[in-house]
Amino acid sequence: MTAWSYIVVFLSLALLALLLTCEWKRVNRARLSWRLSATVMLVVALAAIALPVTYKRGFTIGGKEGVLLTEGYDQDSVRLFMQAKKTPVWMSAADVKEPGLSVLHIFGDGLTREQCATLPSVPLIFHPSVMRAGVVSIYWQQALWPGEICRIQGRFYDPGGRPVKLLLTGMHTVLDSTEIKSQGESRFELRTVPVQAGRAVYRLIALNGADTLEQEPIPVEVLQGKVLKVLILAASPDFENRFIAGWLADNGHGVEVRTTISKGKYDRADLNMAVGAVDHLSPGLLDKFDVVMADAAVLKTDDALLRGQVAEKGLGLIIRDSILRFRPGERGLIRDSLGRIQVSESMYGAGKIIFTNLQTTYTRLLAGDKKGYAALWTSVLKEAAGKDAVAERWQLAPDLPVVDQPVKVLLRYAGSGLPQGFFETEEESTSVVTYLAQRPLLSFVWEGLYWPRSAGWQSIHTTQGDRTWWYTWAANDWRTLHRMEKMRETERWIAGARNIKVEKTGAAGEASRAPVGKGWFYLLVILSCLFLWVERKI
Asked: 435-486: per-residue pLDDT in tens?
């Protein structure tokens, strides 16, 4: 039984005990046994509606068996199976249309959910092929901001438990590596900070000694970073604020630094921008900035003003304090090696407030760790600045589109008119137009279908919109991952309520469990309630 089944059973028993107690305590003892029986039937019917109730029915395995061969099937296993039985064989799910078919055997890697839906409603027996070593799940963020860390996370399956080394390569060098020694599925994570501008394709390589088990492309795009205008309010001169201001300016951001010298006296520095005097803060002055980074000591006089700008205008506020007090509702962003929170985030009206106790990150620059320093402050500033509202946002499914396979295109569109999707490859300038249909209940969502014809980087945009780049994989990429996905989808389909689940009952035959129609239980609920209502009126 599942957790849901236990919950339904427990609630049903509690409801039954309550209703039976009420009926038993009634002063009128007439028709008590009828009332108790109707109450029991009512609760049982309600539980049956919530639970998947099935019944067992038998069938005979004879000349109506069939065999469906899918990609990756083992020829020896099929030959041994066919020696004992002579059954029709199909190579495609769409061809399985044998009348009177009693059971269908599926050999190989299995089918996708869409292919399973084309099969006839008969019991299915899955004979999966032996899984080979390889990546069975993968995730990474394909579009990154400059300085942001690219994390490749996934699971690697190794049936033999041999030591496997995973390499992340790019720009003709090894960017990161890890080793897997355990048998079965193991988690892994590889990291790098992309240094290129624009699009690039890294490689994930799995090595067992001198043998290459797998080599898969990892496309990554570094977006053009948004130019921020940052106001730094320093309580006193220090190296931390100085290095942050210099790093921001070197990356093209506008920086205004106000450092407190003594009470009421400040030192100013303008980098890539000039906004005039910042001795006294005002709403008009703060409107010129995207992010304010302030020491906790300078917020005693301007705290209410800054928080008001955060809540009303969406200003990003970063508060630096030597002691970080974690508050309810905050989310930890960065932790140290001991798991202690160093940077936390809190939603505040239309904006965000970031709290941090980082005081000596400049030592990373002094040690030559420019990538680590950039990744740290890029992630903090990205969270503080928030996301800009865009007129259109594209989303494609599946996550790993394959050549000559349908790709579902979803567009969130805030403009007017009928949007169209223009697809272009990186090498060709000619566009393929895809027409989109509007969803009935969500007027800002449009969807369509596109069939990519070549592997590599491709772009999609509307007539007035900016280009969104995405990647299409070749048919032989991520073969182990796609095999595992099809096996799991086939197993889920067979175990699902829409199909007949096969159970062994003996050598002479088998039995199937079919779902009981919910209409009978709804009818029993209506009749029980009707009897209990009429009985009280008599």
From this structure: 888 888 888 888 999 999 889 999 998 887 778 899 999 989 999 999 999 9
Between CA 320 and CA 357 the distance in angstroms is 6
The full DSSP string for 379-448 is HHHHHHH-----SEEEEEESSS-BTTS-EEEEEEE-SSS--EEEEEESS----EEEE-EE-SS-TTEEEE
CB atoms within 10 A of CB 340: 12
Question: Half-sphere exposure of residue 419, counting CA atoms within 13 Å on the CB side?
Answer: 29
Give the Cβ contact number of residue 476 at 10 Å: 10
Contact 412, 382 (CB under 8 A): no
The ranges assigned to domains in the chain are 3-53+517-537, 229-384, 392-472
User: In terms of CATH architecture, what is 229-384?
Assistant: 3-Layer(aba) Sandwich (3.40)
Using CA atoms of 452, 456, 461, 465 in order, give the dihedral in degrees to the nearest 10.
170
Which amino acid is present at 296? A
Residue position matching structure tokens 């006296």: 265
- pLDDT tens track for 286-309: 888 989 998 888 887 788 888 898
Nearest CA-CA partner of 119 in 499, 531, 532: 499
* Angstrom distances, CA of residue 193 to CA of 150, 244, 373, 376, 519: 6, 19, 11, 11, 58
Amino acid letter, residue 271: L
CA distance 15 to 18: 5
Tell me whether domains 229-384 and 392-472 share a fold.
Answer: no
Lowest-confidence segment of 284-298, 493-507, 521-535 by average pLDDT? 493-507
pTM for this prediction: 0.65
Predicted confidence at residue 57, as pLDDT, reads 56
Pick from 246, 253, 254: nearest CA to 366: 246
| Cβ-based neighbours of 469, under 8 Å, separated by 6 or more | 143, 199, 221, 457, 458, 459
pLDDT at position 192 is: 92
Would you tell me which CATH number, out of the four given (3.90.800.10, 2.60.40.2320, 3.50.50.60, 3.90.580.10), belongs to the domain 392-472? Answer: 2.60.40.2320
Average pLDDT, stretch 505-513? 44
Cα–Cα distance measured from residue 45 to residue 39, given in angstroms and rounded to the nearest whole number: 10
Q: Give every CB contact of residue 338 below 8 A, 6+ residues apart in sequence.
A: none
The CA-atom distances, in angstroms, between 1 and each of 9, 324, 518 are 10, 46, 19
For the chain, percent of residues with pLDDT exceeding 90: 24
